[in-house]
Amino acid sequence: ALCAIGDIDAAKAICGEGDARRFPINNLTANMLLEISLSDASTDPRQLAADATRMVSDGFTPSLRLFSQLVNTLWFRGGANLALSAYENLLAAGVPASVGLLLKVVQLRLRSSNRRLALDAFETACDRLRSIDVGRLYLDDKSMLGLMELLIDQKGIYAALRAFEFLQGLPINQSSLPYGLMIEHLINSSLFDRAHSLIRKVVQNDICVSSQGAKVSSRYFLLTSTVSDAVNFLRYLHRTDSLWNVDVATVDSVLLRCVEARRMADFKWICEVMAKYKLIVPVWVRAVDRFAPSNGYVLLEMVRAILLNVDRKSAAAVTLL
Hints:
The protein is mostly helical. It has helices spanning 8-15, 27-39, 45-57, 64-78, 80-92, 99-110, 117-129, 141-155, 157-168, 179-188, 192-205, 211-224, 227-239, 248-260, 264-274, 281-291, 296-307, 313-320. The mean pLDDT is 84.
């Protein structure tokens, strides 16, 4: 508790130092001394790593929490290489690692010169997770993305998909999973049913996807799904501030499908929302060319929706004229 609030001097006074130690050395007190060293910002990181190694060689075992804290502290104070070296030394000596530490090692490996080793740490973590119940897990967005990219590159889309589906079932923040990357690669690999399933999940749960994922998803989903699903997908992109990723041809196609299906409320909503995007003028150019010859009512509804939802109405009117 004293270490947690930063009162290192009081913690040292309780334990004593050197010849003045107040307790016999056993596994419990060895962990107490390690915790003090970890909490003391003045401790040199290399000395900290050496102390932990010596503790293990003396026959004592750091707790799961302190082993994880050791690697994390060495990472921030001494860099990834020192943290990984200490991890490997203690692991080789038989010190058990928690799932959280294994996931941290995945992060470290992904930032190292030999990124492929991250897959070994990830597979070990997955094996452990299949046999235990865990609370909340954490792996940052960048590491999740790097891990999936590495799996796709080294083992292929099917191995990456199995790993992704496994991660989906864990108590992990779903928004940190790279849904956009997986959807993009599934579509590019012609695994359309799997891609469709993931797209539905992100829409139902308002999970943000990457810019490229949104672009690829919109081109595929908006043109292959029903009109209702296509409009719902646009509404999802609007809710997650991703609508700007949709290309002009796709919006034009959805507008036409709304008109053909006589879904004018959806048509007007798309016009109103797209009017707020300054770079979307080509949409109106294509729409005018499409509707002007034979569908004056639709054209007037579009113009009305646009002019009611733009700030510079005169400039918009000139553009439409």
